[in-house]
Each structure stands twice: as structure tokens, then as C-alpha cells.
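Sample 1 of the test manifest.
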Amino acid sequence: MNVIGGFSLLQKMLGKSEIEDRVRLKWFSASNGEGYAPTVQYIIEMLRTLGPVSRNRSRES
Amino acid sequence: MKMTNPKAAFYWAASCGGCEIAMLELGEGLVDMSKKVDIVFWPVALDFKYSDVESMPNESIDVCFFNGAIQTSENEHMAQLLREKSKILIAFGACANDGGIPALANTTSKEEIFKRVYKQTPTTGNPEDVIPQSKVHVKEGVLSIPEFYNTVRTLDQTVDVDYFVPGCPPVGEQITAVINDIFGGELPPKGSVIGASDKSLCDECKRVKGDRKIKKIVRTYEIVPDTEKCLLDQGIICMGPATRGGCGAQCINANMPCRGCYGAVPGVLDQGAKMLSALSSNFDAESEEEIERIASGVLDPIGTFYRYTLARSLLRRAKA
């Protein structure tokens, strides 16, 4: 239950950041592999498209 | 023959001057220090020029205490220059360590900041909409001022740093201890955080910790907090669980919550995320609506959880 509170705050913060699009919260029961697998695949594809978050230290403008 | 004293430099970049005040507050300690140490550069107190530093041989300064974040080309130039000229470079205070308050600029952009500061503030009269430019051509030639960067960085995101002294500002006793250690030759391993504890602030806080069940988040003006009980138990966001100790819990002793200026506890990469998780796990609610209601009591999550560490954080900055 508390995850929801944390997640709601997290979304509020990420809304302004470069990693907003990378975060999802979904619930699956242990028996729902059929729902879980495609979601993970979808997220992997999404991350491939977005590429890594740049953590380099060079100055941006 | 008299042995030469070690040479020290002090510099301020994007900061408020509080770190300088913290140094001055050493009072007699400062006099003691000046007997053992030659100060070769300290803009707040002594009239040295940048060209004086430029003309020094490389590594001729033994220790440089550098406070402030890197927000302008001047800050960056001085960081590089002082790195070159100093054997030991110390990131001094929250801004140099983690970005500090100036790094909250990373929630917006240079353009928005300039718009606000030079056009929109009620006390500003600027009918011609003049915005500072880094270079201006006048009859006599080109006038230049430092460039203001879009993103605020920490000192160690700019140049190599030897030691980190956290705090906004670092507390006096810790500064004295650091000075004694560094000039006494007691050098910790490179990269160490010095002048602070290796535990969280909660560890040194004497308040009685209860069950930490938060039903409502309150701000400090809304209640008169009990002086014995944990502030989080009373619904006040206290950054103690996510913050490095060593400050002597001065804010807590004044019945105010920790705001997180000593940075993340050791082993934690992102202070804000740590605090978010510590806080939300204490929300006491039966339904989703109720939990959303409690969470909505955090009015400014970034400004609360990353007040001093946004430049260091995983969030880094607002989207362009």
C-alpha cells in the first residue's frame, strides 16, 4: 500500500526529470505470467529506444 | 632557519557566503591557524587577484578549501585553476559537495531564471527587457561578464576533488578538526568525506522514536512540535533518516527538522530517493485515496528531498 504513496511522490518528482518516461508501476499476481512477460518485454523495448540516461560529467551549455 | 608554513587558499563559487562566515566564526581559532598556515588567496577577506593565482607555480598551494557550486564560466575557470595550483583540493560545504541550494536551479532553465529575475520580479523595472549578455560590443571594445550555465554542477563533476567536507555550512568544531588533521599531516584516503559522521543523523538524534505512523504531513508553522519526540512521528518531514550525521543535530535541538544539508548517508547514491522511500513507508493509511491524500502533503518533493543534492542526484536536472 505504501508503495502507492511513494510512487505518487516519485511521479511528481520525475515529471520534471529526464527519466520520467522510464518508470512504470504495475501489479501482477504470481499466476499472471501472461500479463507480466509482455509488460517486461515492452519496457525493455522502450528502454532500448530511449538509450541510456547520460550520466557523463561534461558541461551541458 | 624557519620552516615555511603550509599554504592555504579559500575560494567561493556559486554560494551564499555562509561557508565563509563559518570560517570567520572560528574566531580565535582563525588566529591560531594563521600562525601555522600562510593564506595565499581568500577573496572574501584578503585582496588577492585572480592573476596572482595564475602566476603561482602548479601545486604550490598545499590545501585549497573550495566552497560553492559551479554555475558560471567564472566558477568553472576558478575550479580548474585552483585544482592546477593546489596539492589538495577540498570540496567545502553542501554546494561544492552536492550542488546545494544553487542546484535547485536545475529544476528550471537559464532562460526561465533570467526571465524571472530580470523581467518578472515585482521589484524589477526593466521596460527595455534588457537581459545580461556574456559579451557586449561598445565603442571602446568588447565588455564581457562570465557566462551563466543552464546546469549547476558539483565541484567533483567539474574537476578532481581530494576530500569532501559537507554541511550548510560545515559546523565549527568539524572545521577545526579538519584543519588540524589536514595541516597536521593526518591525511585520510583520497575521496573521503571528512568532518562528518559515518552514520545517519537519526543515529545521533536524542529524540524518542515512536512507531512512525504518519497520518498527515504537517509543516513546521502548523504545529508546535513536541521537543522530546521524533519529528517524523509528529508528521514533520525530517531528513534525518537519509542524511549523514556529524552536525551535532543543531536544527533538531532548535526544534526544527533536518533539511538534509550534510548530504546522503554513506552508501546511498541518491539522498532524495532514500528519503522518499523512508517517508512513504511510514504512511499510515487504509485506502489508496487516503495514501494519496497523505502524499499530497509533500508540497514540493524535489525541493524537500533534494534541497541540497539535486546536482548529485539521479534526477540530475529538469527536462530541456
